[in-house]
Amino acid sequence: MGRKPKKKDIAEYLWHSEPTKINATNDNWRIRYGYLDSEGKEHQTTETVNNERAKNQFVSYLLLREKEHKAAKGTTVASKVDKTEIETVEQLLYAYAEHTKYLHTIGDRYGWDEGTYRANIGKIRNYIVPVFGSFPIWKITRVDMRQGFKDMLQLPQANGNHKANGARVSQRTVYDCKKIISRAFKYATDELELITENPMLGVTVKQPKSSRREVWTEEQFNFAYDNCSDPQLKLLISLMVALSSRIGECLALTWSDLYDNEDKHEPSYIRNYKELTYRTEKFIKETNGRGILKVFDQVRSTRPDAKRRAVFHVTKTEKEIEAKTDRIYIAPEVIFMLRDYRLVQNQHKQLAGDSYIDDDLIFAHEDGTHISSQYADDMFRSLYEPLGLPKVDLYSLRHFSITKKLDYNRHDYVSLAKDTAHRQLSTIQDYYETPEDSVRIDTAKAIGKFLSRSGKSDSESKVTISLKDEDFAKKLEEVASDSAGKQMLEFAIAMYEKNNSGK
Fold first, then answer.
1. How much of the chain exceeds pLDDT 70, in percent?
2. Which of 45, 150, 271, 331 could bond 257 through an S-S bridge, CB–CB 3.0 to 4.6 Å?
3. Quick check: helix, strand or coil at residue 280?
4. CA dihedral 300, 303, 306, 310 (to 10 degrees)
5. What sign does the CA torsion over 312, 317, 319, 321 have?
6. Contact at 8 Å (CB) between 355 and 367?
7. Cα–Cα distance between 303 and 172 in angstroms, integer?
8. Pairing of strands 292-303, 306-314
């Protein structure tokens, strides 16, 4: 981060986040963006502007410079969309939805996986198209957008996973629709170059408040960890905390991803670049298997016409892997646990013989088949429920891990973002970091201690004691050097003098 760069120090602009309003009482906006300096090093910083017009001008400038960077480097994502067929907002939205499937296959963070794709297609069909679908993309304005989102709140809920009960569309759904439209128009301006100005710039929708995920305290975690007797579950918990990873990423770890360098006295690390998830055969065929590293033989059938297969899917782009951002360093203690667990797994191989399915998985059943996230959650639940601990899921361990790492690394968000694969540091602050009251209480005590000492001179901050025993007097002087100890000592002396005043 460092100081704010001057324009002459910026060689190329790389990306920018959506502008965020600093507070509701004024018109100040904050925009985070990434850039390359004259030496080719990548940085990120924020720009604060004090009105909407300045915000739109700065965002337009960033878009122009980012487009120049993409053109120079040839990094614009190729699209198979026929631009001549896109005239209305509806056509743009469905074209963008197909584009996100491609982005997902190359590990792009804006790609939609199969579940997200189905959910967002439902939002487009049921809520966005009825309001905005017929507008020509070059005629729709910010005024139309703002009014459209107000009208969307009056639509009835559509049937989805749950039967609609006649209620209106929620603020959360409208906010999700706004994100879809914003990125679709950004795609139209930056990638397809169908329009010159994004009509969503400056259009805001109230973001609903999200309740924080239930996370164990350090004492609760230690209690569960100490009472865990299952070596597989204990290793899974240890890796989720050590890697700050998602459950699918942990279950996709293979022994070949582990680089055990403890004997070489070098840092050991694990490569975290894929996840274990499920895809229908139809989706695999539609995407030509792009982004899928392995398809498992086992079939999960939810319906006769929708067979789902477990797959390894990439979670990082080739550029991120080349930059070695998929490496997460782990402590020797975790390495020793992995070594011990591998001995247990080798015993399972010997007992199973030829029937063992060896996919090199770290987490597998006794016959070598992969472990599902549902099975892992059930194992975790069987641990904490008998102990009477609060109900949480395995994903909460990611939140717990991030909070502890921030405590240990003195809130170095940049290094932690590499472990968590979050490009925007604000995501960690807003959604993952769980402030602990004990830390805030200790901070308050430290401030009080500082203030009580800073308001007095050195001569006033010590208690002079005259005792025959010089060693004892020295100890008392050490106690008196602390503000809390000084107060206790003064109180003890006062009580002694009071009790012995008549003698």
1. 71
2. 271
3. strand
4. -10
5. negative
6. yes
7. 30
8. antiparallel
pLDDT, one tens digit per residue, over 386-431 is 999 999 999 899 888 888 887 776 666 666 666 666 555 555 555 5
| Complete edge-to-edge strand list for the sheet that includes strand 258-259 | 258-259, 268-271, 327-330
Burial of 77 (0-12, 13-18, 19+ CB in 10 A): middle
Half-sphere exposure of 314 (CA within 13 A, CB side): 21
Task: Please tell me the predicted confidence (pLDDT) of residue 423.
Answer: 55
**Strand, helix or coil for residue 22:** coil
The C-alpha atoms of residue 210 and residue 502 are separated, in whole angstroms, by 66
Tokens of 305: 């016409």
For the record, the structure tokens of 236 come out as 């899974």
Residues 6+ apart with CB under 8 A from 377: 247, 393, 394
Cβ-based neighbour number of residue 497 at 10 Å: 9
Q: Amino acid letter at 426?
A: S
CB neighbourhood size of 344 (10 A): 12
Neighbour-count burial of 89, counting CB atoms closer than 10 A to its CB (0-12 exposed, 13-18 middle, 19+ buried): buried
- C-alpha distances in angstroms, 375 versus 216, 248, 382? 21, 12, 11
pLDDT in tens, 431-474: 555 555 555 566 566 666 656 555 554 444 444 444 445 555 55
* Radius of gyration of the chain measured on its C-alpha atoms: 29
Residue 259's nearest CA partner among 327, 192, 323 is 327
DSSP-derived secondary structure for 477-498:
HHHHTSHHHHHHHHHHHHHHHH
Both tokens of 397, joined, read 């361990």
Strand pairing class (42-49; 20-21)? unpaired
Structure tokens at 269: 């690390």
Query: How many angstroms separate the CA atoms of 419 and 493, rounded?
Result: 54
Q: Are 394 and 380 in contact (CB under 8 A)?
A: yes
Distance from C-alpha of 261 to C-alpha of 242, rounded to nearest angstrom: 17
Q: Which residue has the tokens 């892997």?
A: 321
CA pair distance 298, 313, nearest whole angstrom: 16
